[in-house]
Amino acid sequence: MSDKTSKIQDPGVGVQYDHETKRIINSNGSFNVRRKGTANFVRDAYHWLISIRWFPFVIVVGSVILSTNIIYAFLYMACGLEDISGVIVSDSMGDNFTQALFFSVQTFTTVGYGAMAPESNVIGIIASIEAFNGLLLSAFSTGILYGRFSRPLSKIIFSKNAIITLFKDTNKKSLQFRIINKRANTLLNLRASVFISIQEPITTSEGKEIHKRNFFDLSLERSKIMFMPLSWTLVHMIDEQSPLYGITQEEMIKRHAEVLITLKVYDETFGQDTYTYHSYYATDFLEGKRFIRNFQVDDEGDIILNVNDVHNIEDQPNYQK
Known about the structure:
ion channel, 18 strands, 5 helices, 26% helix, transmembrane, Immunoglobulin-like, potassium, IRK_C, alpha+beta, transport, 5-stranded mixed beta sheet
């Protein structure tokens, strides 16, 4: 087993609070902190657009481009569509707007089919400004897309639950969780750091009750591996040196115990280290279970890995709480 389990200082998430707090890391991997006074969208648009999910990103970018074209379409209508060759002005506001929008899109994208063209200085100036705006927005969108695709992010999947189970064929209890690479690329030099946060109420000298977090290292049977073509089960032995020794799951829930994991991985695709973090709250622990092997060997000797079976568990025989 690795270094002895010991109490550690605040890892950066705070120690004392006036009230009980929720989990440190949410189930989606985000920190449970609501920030006030951070840079807004205007000041930090690039970082915001590169970090949000794909669906809102497509909605935001698409809305900006569509809104820009609609605004310019109304400008063309206000200045007079008769100054645009190829436009047939009608009594229908909808038909006029549709033609103005088509001209706006062609100008914005610099497609220029040749069917429509400005015939007055005012329309020409507006079209020139729109073409310039289109180039800027297209370049900005392309840069954001490149940044999103080139971000070095690992696709490490953690098992839905951490389990308290017997270690191999012994009667010693252990805390285990399993990880797997969602991608088919090669991961090298994996290193895991695991510690636990346990809350306890204390009373200050002024008689005020506060809630304090204590942090402990959780030593692992193996904290690093060279490569991970299969899954990796991380094991913490619950012995006399473990902060979990002699504590029931009900008590861990009452004391808001949370296991925090940081994983450092060298990703061969990106050619650099990536970091992944995750947590298991006390309610995520399952006792008396064990993981089911998620790979088999076929008749030809090839190893078949079932990635989606990383969460599968079954009852642990002869387990006693």
